[in-house]
Amino acid sequence: MAARRFDLALVVDCLEHLPKRDGLNLLGGIRNLNASRIAVLADLPASGWQETDFYSLALQASERFARDEQVLTLFTYDLLDYKQVPDWLNSRFWANPENFGKYWW
User: What is the pTM of this model?
Assistant: First the structure.
């Protein structure tokens, strides 16, 4: 599964046809190994999934689309937005010999 890393992976009309465990493994594998961004379009009632299942994989509910009786939910993940680097975690605040003894935390 880790052959190439892509910028975007689309998962559409897939989770409704897989056992939940296989779907979790698929999305986790794509997120960890294959794509920096993921967009998943799922029919929650038809798939048996809940929003919290997607949250556990760090996906966010972005939009809902209704068509007749069907409601599709778009879940997204972007590695660049997932965890912002804290401001204090840079060389400006540590490992600068010129600042030794000047600042105390």
Answer: 0.76
Q: For tokens 């996906």, name the residue.
A: 59
**Residue 94 pLDDT class (50, 70, 90 cuts):** low
User: Does 64 fall in a domain?
Assistant: yes
CATH for 68: 3.40.50.150
- Note the pLDDT tens digit of each residue in 2-37: 578 899 999 999 999 999 999 999 999 999 999 999
Q: Dump strand ranges (E) for the chain.
A: 6-12, 35-42, 60-67, 70-78
Q: Which domain holds residue 31?
A: 6-79
> Residue 92 falls within a domain, yes or no?
no
In sequence order, which residues have a C-beta less than 8 Å from that of residue 18 and are 6 or more positions away? 26
Count of domains observed in the chain: 1
